[in-house]
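From the shared-data thread, chain only:
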Amino acid sequence: MMRSGPLQHARARSVITRSVTWCGAIGDRGEAFARSDGAWLGTLVELSEDEAGRQVDWLARLLSARGIPSVCLAYHLEVLHSDPEAHDVLAPGHRRLLESLARSVTLRYRSALDPESYRRLLSTEIPALDPRGAEVLLCAVADQHTALAPCADRVVNWIESDAAIGEPMRLELLAFLDRARAAIVP
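Structure, as tokens:
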């Protein structure tokens, strides 16, 4: 059961739904995460920074184990702290805490990847895969490398089993994941 918190305000709920579309791009699980956990993330501002960090780490592991890379969590936290409507319902200290949490999640997955390879892979031209989609795949590999969870394996299972993904796209996505694995910092 969700506790009441600063993001339970009606205008704040519209902030939460902004990331639903983007998280939904990785499927029903991503959309379900954005809808169900957004308000809970907003309650983290009631905790100490250390406790909020532990909660975010726990959620990142849980999501990654379910095939939702931690970049989705980072993006969701980013939306919660930066959206202009959030400024009306969150104290500046609360926004700074959410920003700090988003930054720590982002730094964790980006530190697993060689920076130059990361930039190069984000600019890879794959039909129907925009830079955010590329970042989701890169993050899945990084999450798995940092022992967060077997996220990349879950993504590969999804790519290989989704009938809506044609064979040429499937091969391109799997090749992209192989290039991402090669960009991991030892």
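DSSP finds ten helices and no strands in the chain.
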